[in-house]
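Notebook, student rotation project (T.W.).
Task set for the rotation: take a protein with a known small-molecule partner, predict the structure of the complex, and write up what can be learned from the model alone. Partner molecule chosen: zinc ion. Sequence and SMILES entered below by T.W., checked by me.
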Amino acid sequence: MVSDVTCEKLREIGAEMALGVLPGRERAAAAAHLDRCAACREYIEHMTLVGDGLIGLVPGSEPPLGFETRVARRLPQDVTAHEGEPHTRASDLAHKAVRSRARRVRLWVASAAAAFALACGFTGWAVGTAIESVTASSSPAVEIQTPLMEGELTSASGLGPSAGDIYAHPGDPGKPGWIYMTVDLAAVGTPYSGKVVCLLERTDGTTIRVGTFTLSNGRGDWGAAASVDPAALSGARLTASDGTVLATGDFETG
Amino acid sequence: MGADRIYKCAELPVPVSRLPDEALLSGLATGDPELAVTFVRRFQRAVFGVAIAVTGDRQLAEDIAQQTFERAWRHAQIYDSRRGSVTTWLTTIAHNLAIDAVRARRTEPVAPEDLDALLDVVTETPEQWALADEASSQLRAAVAQLPREQGRALVMAGIYGMTAQQIADWEKIPLGTAKTRIRTAMGKLRNTLASPDRGDHGQ
Ligand SMILES: [Zn+2]
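Predicted structure of the complex:
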């Protein structure tokens, strides 16, 4: 059993809680209080931001040489481990990863998950806990609030389930929006190589040309800063340089 | 691999290396090796910096930094831009992992000279901090203005992850005093960060 914690007591131990150094028993009592007190929750959340900021003051330091290559090599491999697939050619990995993961990709956590993490007494981003609450639950309590838009590309040939993914984000205040797409036309029988044009389609029927990039054997990933208005954006189109439509996609919001 | 992907750097309107942090993070989910390298390279200094500061052990710090990126990659979907930058997200992951690692080893968390050195470096403002955002400059100034004993308590709790009891033992002060120092220091920092127009004080 945990004893009751008053708001006053919570403010007394809040700093330690936010820094993640409150011993387990006290933390459980505090978490129980946070569960039912929005004001204290906000207080702790703010304190946690202070703690995160403090960590941000720690000076950077270069890791040993070759670190990024070692890490990056393990990331895509981790996909196969995760999905229990046998080893595949490295060049196929990325696209297999897209197929197996992108459907589940949901960027930006719901505030409900963050609140849950805080209520459980973890500091900072409370990675493990928040993840559990996001992945273990498809309940309406967990909703995506930042309007990331996501769409699946469908090949113009109509073959296959998916030719890639496109993401669009209107940007955070003061920052530009962006789009990012990953294309795999090889999977749908169009191993096109060459320049392609990315166009965004708007609800009023007009299209905006966002940029060009190159596909190699039907594959490519590309991103660009773009002005994204979620209310006016309906879909995207990928065309060859002669205008032939290669793939299309419709956006769904988060 | 490699050859067929090089085009991206040469021909992108926005090269991968110039993608916004958030786009790079979301791109990680695709498993693209080049994006992953760019992502790691962009943030490795901050991540490793936290890991080495907490653990004081380069090998352990490298393991922690590695785990941090693996987590970020697996859990990019929980990143919430409203709560802070991608850098902040990654450094807090690294911090949590580093604290866990130190606790698991049950070694002395910190040597006195390391503590003072870290407090000094956290509050100094050499040239490379000139580009830091305003909030962190304000925070740095606020930490610098704390009485030394409060600054030490703050670094011990907030960076080294020491409990109030450990701080009390370390500083040879009563537990209540250690708790008060943490609370007072955090209260001051919180007031610094609270913008005047935001009514975050109780209704
Ligand atoms: Zn309360």
